[in-house]
Write a structure and sequence with these properties.
Helices cover about 35% and strands about 20% of the residues. The longest helix has 19 residues. The structure holds histidyl-adenosine monophosphate. Histidyl-adenosine monophosphate binds next to strand 6, strand 10, strand 11 and helix 11.
């Protein structure tokens, strides 16, 4: 039986790899242009990091983690997201001693055991950006604006930005208790799933597609109406900054994110160019997370955007492989080694150079050079070397040691 890639995973083939390089290039330009520096954390971490950081009651921790015993009785988990690991790294490496905020970005793969469908995979890639060490509303606005710029650079269409604020943990706790009371009072109208989660995660009720639950939630108390004055002011300042740079958004008081660490600002970009999995990228502020993981009290704000979803929504033009500048064809055993050495030389001089590696006849080699769209072909035969300009078809004798110089500075 022929083996296949596991369900929910995919191979990145050369053409797709080139499209991904365009994403990486755009991310680097947009983020490094704003002072973000690249960081990478391990592909797996102690399970406790995500249990504590992302939250025991979230779907991610409850159902979606690939966890395993490391052979020494410790539970490890393939990272389902990047924020908790970056916060761990921030305090582990004493980054709170650096000038704040510390701005970090990553492009890595993440793992979630979800039901695969279009735009939803079990191994997927995210571009993420985290700014740690400041609770200035300008950090929030800048962070959101950078994701907007990245999506625009990539040509992700039909975008919608939703924005809300979750306030402080204390406000949320009071609000949560009030919401639970409300949900209990109308429990009979809720879906079984939502009813079962009233105690564990009542906020997720806003996410439900169930008609009865939706009707109940339309009249539910809203967190946005219960914010403390300083959180209300913080949110107003974030909005004012976004207004000032003409980034349009809608305030959506029902916006909930699937991770527990958020405080104050939360946001999500979705694209109608995608199907059911319309979330392209999202994030928010997480002022308690570093401390929750044992570090110093630290403000944080960031986002992550799915690479596959950005590519699906942007439908970028496939990028062609760069053509070879030089192809070295040869015939006669004596030329074999000379051709190999010439190609090595050409590459050392910075040329994209290739030679036949499949035992083709001279005719076959020339045909192959055409397929590679080679600009120049050096022919090494018993009679000596010749250089052919593939554009004009002209061919001239050349000394082998002159080939690289001639290709770099053609005089034909
Ligand atoms: P998230 O909303 O869980 O946030 O994921 C961010 C993005 O990753 C989503 O909008 C989506 O594009 C992509 N994504 C998530 N799951 C999958 C999947 N199974 N298949 C394909 N793409 C997927 C976070 O992960 C937070 N760490 C974001 C953040 C950073 N918040 C603050 N800082």
């Amino acid at each position: 039986m022929r083996l296949q890639a596991p369900r929910g995973t995919f191979d990145v083939l050369p053409e797709q790899a080139r499209a991904r390089e365009a994403v990486e290039h755009a991310a680097r330009r947009v983020l490094e242009g704003a002072g973000y520096e690249r960081v990478e954390t391990p592909a797996f971490e102690a399970t406790e990091l995500f249990a504590r950081g992302v939250g025991e009651s979230t779907d991610v921790v409850q159902k979606e983690m690939y966890s395993f015993d490391d052979g020494g009785g410790r539970s490890m988990t393939l990272r389902p997201e990047g924020t908790a690991p970056v916060c761990r790294a921030y305090s582990e490496h004493g980054m709170h001693k650096l000038p704040q905020p510390v701005k970090l970005w990553y492009l890595s793969s993440f793992f979630r055991h979800e039901a695969p469908q279009a735009g939803r995979f079990r191994q997927f890639w995210q571009v993420g950006a985290e700014a740690l060490g400041s609770d200035d509303p300008a950090v929030d606005a800048e962070s959101i604006l950078l994701l907007a710029e990245l999506l625009e650079t990539l040509g992700v269409g039909e975008l919608r930005l939703r924005l809300s604020s979750l306030g402080s943990p204390a406000t949320r706790a009071t609000y949560r208790a009030g919401l639970q009371e409300y949900l209990r009072s109308r429990a009979g109208e809720l879906s079984d799933d939502v009813r079962a989660r009233i105690e564990l995660n009542p906020l997720r009720a806003f996410d439900s597609e169930h008609p009865g639950t939706r009707a109940v939630m339309a009249d539910a108390p809203r967190l946005l109406d219960a914010l403390e004055p300083e959180d209300r002011e913080h949110f107003a300042q974030v909005r004012a900054l976004l207004d000032r740079v003409d980034l349009s958004y809608e305030v959506d008081p029902t916006l909930v994110r699937g991770l527990d660490y958020y405080t104050r600002t939360v946001f999500e970009f979705s694209s109608d160019a995608l199907g059911a999995q319309s979330g392209v990228g999202g994030g928010g502020r997480y002022d308690g997370l570093v401390a929750l993981l044992g570090g110093p009290p630290t403000g944080g704000m960031g986002w992550a955007a799915g690479v596959e979803r950005m590519l699906l929504a942007a439908a970028p033009q496939p990028v062609a492989a760069p053509p070879a500048e030089l192809f070295v064809a040869w015939t006669g055993e004596a030329q074999r080694v000379a051709a190999f050495a010439l190609v090595a030389d050409a590459r050392r001089s910075g040329l994209h150079a290739q030679l036949d590696l499949a035992g083709r006849s001279l005719k076959g080699q020339l045909r192959h050079a055409g397929r590679l769209d080679a600009r120049w072909v050096a022919l090494l035969t018993d009679e000596g070397a010749e250089l052919r300009d593939m554009e004009s078809g002209e061919q001239e004798p050349v000394a082998v040691e002159q080939v690289v110089a001639r290709v770099q500075r053609p005089i034909l």
